[in-house]
Every structure is written in structure tokens, then in C-alpha cells.
Amino acid sequence: MTAVVGQGPAGVGGSASGRSASGSIYDLGYRGYNGPRLGRRHAVAALVRESLRTTFGIGRGGRAKVIPFGLAFLVLLPALVAVAISGLRGQLPLGPEGEDISPVRYANYYGLVAQLLFMFAAAQAPELVGRDLRSAFLSLIFARALRRTDYVAARVAALVVAIAVILLLPQALILAGHSLASPDVLDAVGSDLGDVPAVVGQALLAALLLATVALAVASFTPRRSYATAAIIVAFVVPPLVSGLLRSLAGSPTASRLVALASPSDLLDATNRWLFGLGGPERVAGGGPVAALAAVAIVVAGLAVMVVRYRRLPV
Amino acid sequence: MRGESAPLVALESLSKRYGSVVALNDVTLSLEPGIIGLVGANGAGKTTLLRILLGLTEPTGGRVRVLGLDVGHDGTRVREAVGYMPEHDALPPDMTATDLVTFLGELSGLPHAASRERTAEVLRHVGLYEERYRPIGGYSTGMRQRVKLAQALVHDPRLLLLDEPTNGLDPAGRDEMLALVRRTGTEFGIAVILASHLLGEIERVCDYLVAIDAGRLRSAAPVASFTAGTGAVRVEVDEGVDRLADRLGDAGFTVRRDGRTLLLAVDPAGRAYDAIRDAVVDLGLALVRLEPERGSLEDLFRDEVAA
After folding, report:
1. CB-defined contacts A:B, below 8 A
2. What is the ipTM score, two decimals?
3. What is this structure's pTM?
4. Most CB atoms within 10 A, among A246, B18, B44, B55?
């Protein structure tokens, strides 16, 4: 046999391993692995961790971080304004009603940043699943100690956590700002605590719905630009259709039914319901039905992805 | 070798159809650890078979056991102990080799720190050095093939499945890859199934041969049984090959003309060698070659054409 091994740049590998090896690198010999093998649960946890890093472009060079961190910062901006105002309030003789001058509240925070969240999902979902399709990397992932459904679960979980965090973090900041700026910290915390279930509920529902819809759409194309465009269409077009039916065609019933399939309308409706706001009811059945419809879309999106990845030839 | 009583691979009436296309047809086979060559023309079903062993493709019929585990039920546990190097390029260009192999090691169940350590070791083994910290997008075909081999080895599998590992490599890269595969099987104690459409590669590296053709098992036997002596001797002379053939024929030997050489059946007493020597001397010919004839794997496929 004409073995041509041992041609490598001798010494380079040795220095990388922290020793100045002399002679052929290949003579170090192969060592087996006798350490722990943690199996599928560890594999899934590792995949979730890698997915979270990918969502924020960590480990992928500087440019990959611009969009996720840029959007996360924009989502944070209203909270910075709110904190600045609550800081000022202590110095201005405005009295208790001074609180009202802040345009940023828990009840309208989701509405202020919704478009940014759509953009985040539309930009980052293709990063999570598109590359694996593009480079046929899936065949290496699926050849490991996990199942295809684990892959779906890990990717979805990562995007859900990412969206929930960038939506909850600013509101936690507002809570902290309110509390520290007010003369009676406990009183301030107490008055804000009532909003916590609504804030968390809305954030989780928004994260689940946006993540599953975006990933389900993105899982059908390796092309990032197509995926992003299709996700934006899924978020933007249904409310347009619903709005046109309402204002131009004058058919409010049809408009409210269409809204049941519109992620953005559903999340508007659940937000109004959770915070007890009034206003026109644009989704058939109102807040509770909107929440159920959102959950139904989440389940359908997950089912689409599971079937898609089970059948995908890799 | 880690002792196991179950065979490495056990297939029972394995079939796979894609619509009306039959990729594998009633394959029954039992393999013991070693370096096994899986040979067949492109489209013969080699890749389908490897993917079924991994649980990446579900068979239409039959049973598959790998390392004593049912692939259908225990796919995750099978994949934990098997390394797979696919034929096509499967590496994301924006990841570094180190990050990629570490990540895939963890997906095989290795703790993060252990996976990093193993990654450094296997990348060094396949001959990747400082470039392992650079994105794979800038790698040559040879380097990509090495990364693919490294990711298949990172979790120290008990069985390595290689699908056309020398694809796209130049002759030197081909030699290095085959040497690495051979070492993996002999020194590392890892069983190897090497799929290739190149018989020469299988002949050089493998101990055992499985040949499939149009989805059917054609043969499964030690490589040595194909390349054993055929009981014939090949004679080549500078010129006058016809005269030599006549002379040996007259002496009662069965002579067959094969191009510019003669094939002569050798009797147990070895009289043929004496007869050749005498005939060459008598006729005043220049003897160029006199060697025992060995079979080659190509005979397997030559028979197939004849049949």
C-alpha cells in the first residue's frame, strides 16, 4: 500500500495541544473515548444551546449579530424612554398623576414593538433552519443521537425563548425603573405586580405564535430571502385583508373571521383582553377566542414542521 | 476490540422501494467486525443501505439490526455508536471545523469539554492543523473530506460508515484518505463499512467484500477469496507468442491466448513450468514474464456481464 501519511506540517498540531511534539504527528496514535456518553437528552440540550446562539448570531462572525442585536435594542428603546421618564418624575413637581405623562406602559408595550418582533422572527427563523437545508447539514445532524422531532423542538424552543426574552427584558427594566424611582419601593412594586401575569402571558403567547409560524414557513425553503419575505407576508397580509374587508367591502363578519387566521390580529386581541382594554373587537369571539386560535395555529405549525422533517429526504 | 456476541450488522429480507423504483430487494446478510467494502455501480443501492443502517431512511420491508440493536426501535442508540460520512458535501460554510466537530460530538452525547478535546484529537488525526479555526467555506475538497471523516470519528464510534470517501480527491489525497481508513479499521479497532464504486479502492483497503447490483446482494465474501491464485500461470515473451502456444499445445497443455500473453493451466506436479522453460529455450525466445495468475475483484463483474 502506498501510504502517504505523515506529510502534514510537523509540530503545528503539537503546539496546539500544548506540547512541543517532535517527530510525526501521526505517531501520537489514536486514543479511544471511555468517558461518559450522555445520550439523547444531552444531545437535545446541546442543540437548544446552539440554536439560541444561532438566533443571536453568536459564533457566526460580527455581521450575523447586527440584525438580532439591533432589533433587540430597538425593542428595548421604549423601556429606556420609560425609565428616563420615571427618573425625571421624581425631580419634577408633578404629583401622583405625573405617572400619566409616560407614553410607555405594560399594556401598550407589545403594540409598540410588535413590528420589530415580526422582523426579528422573519430574519432569524431562516438562520435557524435555512442553513441546515442549504448545506445539507441536516444529514449530519440526523445521523446523531437524536430524533427528527427533537430537532424541531430544539429550534422552536430557541426562537420562542429568544423572542420572549427580548420582549420581557425591557418590561422588567420598566418595573425596576418604576420601583427605584418611586419614594416607596414596595408600594411601586406592588402596584406593578398586578400586570405581571398579563405581561408574561402576552409575551409567551407572542413568542410561541411568531416562532412557530416563522419556523414552519422557513422550513420549506433553503433560500433565506424567500423565507424572510414569506414570513413577513404571513404577518402583514392577513391584517390587510381583514382591514380591507372591514373598511372597503363593509363585511365586518368576514373581516373578523379572517382575523382568526391572522397572527398579528390575534396577538392584538389577546393583548387587549389580557390588559382589560376596550376598543373595537376585530377578531370573532374576542380575546379568549383569539388566544385559543393562537394556540391552535401554534399546534398546527408544529405539526406541519414535524411532518415536513419526517418526510424530508436528507 | 470491544467484545460483543451479536453480529456487527444483521439484515433480514431487507427491501426498500421508492414508489415503483426498487432500491434494495430482499437483502439478507450478516457481517462481522472488520473493514468491509460495499461495492456496486452508481445507483446500485449502496447509499440507501448505509442510510438504512443509520435509521435515516426507513426500509419498506425486512429487519435491520446494527450492533445488536434494532434500528427501527433504538435508532438513537445505534446512531450514538455509529459514525457516518456522507457522500455529498454537508458542511455549513460559515462554521469553523473545530466548532462543527465539537457541536456534532455533543449531539452524539459527549459532554462539551470532552467533545472539544476529542475534536482537537481527531482533527489532528485527519491532518487538519491551524486551518481548523477558519470557516469551512474556504477549505479545499480534500480538507472538507477530512472534516467529514473527523466528524464521523469524534465520538469514537464502534462502526464507521463511509460513503465514497475519496470522491473529488486527487490521487495523492485519495491515497491519504484510503490509508486513514485502513488505519481506522486496523489500529483504532473501529469496524468500517466503505461504500465505493471503485473496485481498486476496496481491494486495497478492505478485508471483506459485499457486492450489490441493482438492489440485490450479489456476493459477500472475504476479499482474499476473490484474489486467490487461479491455478494458472501467465507467460509473456517478446515475440513468437504463436510459436510458443503451438509448442505447448503439442506438449499436451491447455493454452489460452490473452492479448500478448498466454495463460497455461498448471498441474500439481508443476510440469508446466519445466515445459515453458524448455520451449522458450528451444525456440530461442526472450521470456519477459512468468507469474502465477491471481483473480481480481473485477472478475466478479466480468462474470456478471457474461451472465
Report:
1. 146
2. 0.81
3. 0.82
4. B55
